[in-house]
Amino acid sequence: MQDPRMMAAKTIKDQHKEKLFEIPGVVGAGLGLVNGNANELAILVFVKKGSRAATAASGIVPARIGNLPVVIRQTSGFKTM
What domains can you pick out in the chain, each with its CATH number? Predict the structure, then answer.
């Protein structure tokens, strides 16, 4: 059985994913936890290191989407396997 909170969070992420990928430097989006806190779900936004999106202070990536906090994770990119 799926956790209703996770299903709701996935719906929110899916509704906003296309908009997130329009932001220069955004290379991925997913769901995770805020600082490992199992009680607080977040939208994880993966951004390319050195991009404007990598700086939270730039405000280019929203701090919240729907009722979920956004956690920015910097990456060198992803490789298809």
Answer: 4-54+69-75 (3.30.300)
